[in-house]
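Sequence design from tokenized structure. All designs in this work follow the same two-part layout: the structure record, then the generated sequence. An example of the structure record is given first.
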């Protein structure tokens, strides 16, 4: 999971700096971290075949979610290093993925309803859990319209047990068995979808309709522990 882990490192490091005010860790390891940022520059837009965070889904190339998280991670790195070139590269990746339609089910945002799981596979999709970090850290890698579009899509895909991690449910090439599809990452989907549909105003959290639907559909925690 090289792209997933590398981008996660920068997202977590920026979050730590933002809320602690401590920048010493990044400065101590700056030379090493800059090499990680260079890796994201070289490999983010067209991810090679690798895993994202769900081991049950086989590795595939050109995963939209990996590219999105990598762009966000690169934008976080640009803030950590105060590097405008990295910021421009991250914004360029986001422009290609969203505005130019590379990661959408249509040719551009005006003709699309959601981000795909893989480039060019218009019926596929998954929970884009990195979206929370773009909003929480105020990175603005992707425009709010992108997250509004995806939120509306989630609203249309909520099932009895909440929001599935990926779809369509009939595509067993990448979602595993129906049982895994129902239980494997339900807890993650629930949590991230709730966070992704929050509005942050003066420190308060206001849940939108998709998040409230998830809250109402939540099942006892014993369901979540069926996956180990």
């Amino acid at each position: 999971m090289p792209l997933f882990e590398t981008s996660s490192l920068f997202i977590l490091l920026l979050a730590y700096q933002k809320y602690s005010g401590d920048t010493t860790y990044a400065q101590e390891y700056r030379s090493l971290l800059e090499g990680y940022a260079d890796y994201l520059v070289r490999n983010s837009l067209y991810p090679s075949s690798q895993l994202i965070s769900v081991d049950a889904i086989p590795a595939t190339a050109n995963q939209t979610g990996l590219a999105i998280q990598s762009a966000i991670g690169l934008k976080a790195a640009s803030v950590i290093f105060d590097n405008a070139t990295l910021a421009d590269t991250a914004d360029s990746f986001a422009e290609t993925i969203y505005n130019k339609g590379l990661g959408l089910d249509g040719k551009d945002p005006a003709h699309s309803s959601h981000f795909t799981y893989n480039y060019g596979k218009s019926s596929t999709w998954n929970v884009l859990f990195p979206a929370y970090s773009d909003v929480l850290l105020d990175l603005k890698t992707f425009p709010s319209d992108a997250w509004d579009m995806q939120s509306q899509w989630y609203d249309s895909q909520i099932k009895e047990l909440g929001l599935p991690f990926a779809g369509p449910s009939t595509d067993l090439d990448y979602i595993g068995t129906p049982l895994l599809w129902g239980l494997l990452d339900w807890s993650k989907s629930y949590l991230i979808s709730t966070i992704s549909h929050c509005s942050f105003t003066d420190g308060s959290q206001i849940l939108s309709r998709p998040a409230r639907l998830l809250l109402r559909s939540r099942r006892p925690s014993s369901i979540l522990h069926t996956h180990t």
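Residues 1-145 form one domain. We note this feature because it recurs in several other targets discussed in the main text.
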